[in-house]
Specification:
single chain, 487 residues, alpha/beta, nine-stranded mixed beta sheet, five-stranded mixed beta sheet
């Protein structure tokens, strides 16, 4: 896309990242490309790591979580890790294992809700599908199975609302039934028949209501579980045959692109800002803070970004923040430079985590939903989140460190505390703080419409976030050396 006049380069780069990342898998793939272009070497968790000071590395887990790190040239085992953590997933509609649904001559796609989405915002949007596919390659004598990303760019589905004439009270309050109301329409049985879209056994889709369970196709075959017209669209995109598709993880996606918008071109309008905005800003900050030959010359620690999957549903997965992925990385890096197993505990106590997850900006139409003295605003810089009940992991020490970095670079910061009479959300911060024992501050750029299919934030806050994270990577070691707490 062409750069908007006067728009910071980091914001234009964010737009490109968002448009390339309809799913967590695509976000990780885009992050991987940017890291490789910046000289980061891919390593595998399945292999022994042989790391060197002054070098840069990354690895992926499930291709939906990615961890990148740069080892300082003055690093020795037992030194600390300076980490920014974010997440790659966002609330969405994910296709069910059996997605074929036919009702009233309409082909619908069975979906399940992922995360806590504002589901009413998914109605009347032009939708498509994206995700990953497991493909079979070769023949019976030599067969292999490949992980491939797929995205159909054009709109192919829609969740239509019911006409007001059939629900006169809808404007008095509409409650979405996530089981029955959210099935996207893919096609009609009549049109599928005209186009001779046939199932695996050659029979045409009928108008009979069907959930895919009673098909006579091969047990477990994709054609028994999903509409052939959908499989054909995927196969065409992947340049394979429908029968080569063994399985997939797909989600519905909005086809409207992310843009810089507003009368003064001061906003970003996009899906998935929570939390791809923080993922991108932290990734770019790490890349730019390690780009030159001298970047790591005086660095005694390890600069790291960890972007996790499954935050929106609790982080309890093999690739979520609740898994050992970060602790495993810290352990393997430490042990790569020394066999002394006791040095890891020392390293953890010297380390620091910035948990970066988007924050709630003050909404002008709902100002009573914010605590009076804690009202983050758009254009106001990163928000430091605090909660006495540890829904956020910030404390006075970690907050001070982050504020001090901001002060040195003349960057604005804001505070957020939830009202006492409202429930508080949480982040990966408390999960990692309690699981690893690492000092943590919870922060995030302010946004509106969080968890909607279409969110918004301020251009200035993207720039502030990137600059704050970059300064953290560059200066934390020196600042931390002057802070005394546990003596």
């Amino acid at each position: 896309m062409s750069k908007e006049e006067g728009t910071p380069a980091v914001v234009s780069d964010l737009i490109n990242f968002l448009n390339a990342s309809p799913t967590a898998f695509h976000a990780v793939d885009e992050a991987k490309k940017q890291l490789q272009a910046a000289g980061y070497e891919q390593i595998s968790e399945k292999e022994v790591w042989e790391l060197k000071a002054g070098h840069k590395y990354f690895f992926t887990r499930n291709h939906s979580t990615i961890v990148a790190f740069a080892v300082g040239k003055r690093y020795v085992a037992g030194n600390g890790f300076h980490i920014v953590g974010a997440h790659t997933d966002s609330p969405c509609l994910k296709l069910k294992p059996v997605s074929k649904v036919v009702k009233a001559g309409i082909l619908e796609v069975g979906v399940q809700t992922y995360g806590g989405g504002l589901w009413h915002t998914w109605f009347d949007r032009d939708l498509t599908v994206a995700g990953r596919v497991i493909l079979k390659k070769g023949n019976a004598d030599s067969v292999s199975y490949l992980h491939r990303l797929v995205r159909i760019e054009e709109p192919i589905m829609r969740v239509p609302t019911l006409a007001i004439h059939l629900d006169r009270g809808v404007n008095d309050g509409f409650k979405v039934n996530t089981q029955t109301h959210l099935l996207p329409i893919l096609a009609t049985s009549l049109k599928a028949e005209v186009n001779k879209v046939s199932s695996e056994n050659g029979s045409v889709e009928s108008g009979k209501q069907n959930d895919g369970k009673n098909e006579k196709d091969k047990t477990g075959s994709s054609n028994a579980k999903h509409h052939p017209i959908l499989l054909q669209l995927l196969a065409s995109k992947l340049e394979c045959e429908p029968d080569d598709i063994c399985d997939f993880e797909l989600q519905a996606c909005d086809t409207q692109p992310s843009i810089i918008a507003g009368a003064a071109k001061e906003f970003v309008f996009s899906g998935r800002l929570d939390n791809l905005c923080m993922s991108f800003c932290s990734l770019k900050a790490l890349i730019d803070a390690t780009s030159s030959d001298s970047s790591l010359e005086e660095e005694p620690g390890v600069r790291m970004v960890a972007l996790f999957d499954h935050e929106e549903c609790g982080s309890n997965s093999a690739q979520g923040a609740g898994s050992p992925v970060v602790l495993d990385a810290l352990s393997r890096i430490t042990h790569s430079f020394s066999p002394n197993s006791k040095l890891l505990e020392k390293a953890v106590q010297k380390s620091f985590l910035v948990s970066a997850d988007m924050a709630h900006a003050l909404h002008p139409n709902y100002m009573d939903r914010h605590e009076e003295n804690h009202q983050p605003k758009l254009h106001g810089g990163l928000v430091i989140k605090q909660n006495a009940n540890q829904r956020y992991a910030t404390n006075a020490v970690t907050s001070f460190i982050f504020r001090e970095i901001a002060s040195k670079h003349n960057l604005p910061v804001q505070d957020f505390v939830v009202r006492n009479d409202m429930a508080c959300g949480s982040t990966i911060g408390p999960i990692l703080a309690s699981g690893i024992g690492i000092r943590t501050v919870d922060v995030g750029a302010p946004q509106l419409s969080m968890h909607s299919i279409r969110e918004m934030c301020a251009v200035d806050d993207v720039k502030y976030s990137y600059e704050h994270f970059k300064a953290f990577f560059q200066e934390f070691s020196l600042l931390d050396a002057n802070i005394v707490v546990d003596i």
